[in-house]
Amino acid sequence: MTRIAIIGGGISGLSAALALEEARRSGAVDYTLYESSPHLGGVLRTEHIQGCIVEAGPDSFISEKPWAADLSRMLGLGDQLIGSNDADRITYILVRGRLIPMPDGLMFMVPTKILPTGFSPLFSWSTKLRMAQELFHPLRGADGDESVASMVERHYGAEMVDRLADPLLSGVYGGEAASLSVRAVLPRFAEMERAHGSLGRAMLAARKKMRRNNKPAAPLFTSLKNGMQQLVETVVPRLNAGSLLTNAPVQSVQREGGGWMVSAGMKSDRFDAVIVALPAPAAAQLLSICSPALSAELAAIDYSSSITVGLGYDREVRQSLPPGFGFLVPRSEGKRLLAATFVHNKFPHRAPEDRALLRCFFAGSNAENVWQLSDDAIIAIVRNELRQVLGVGFRAAPLFARVYRWKSAMAQYGVGHLERLDRIERLRQQLPGLALAGNGFRGIGVPDCIRTGQTAATQVLNQTALSS
Ligand SMILES: Cc1cc2nc3c(=O)[nH]c(=O)nc-3n(C[C@H](O)[C@H](O)[C@H](O)COP(=O)(O)OP(=O)(O)OC[C@H]3O[C@@H](n4cnc5c(N)ncnc54)[C@H](O)[C@@H]3O)c2cc1C
Question: Rounded to whole angstroms, how far apart are CA atoms 182 and 187?
Answer without folding.
Answer: 6
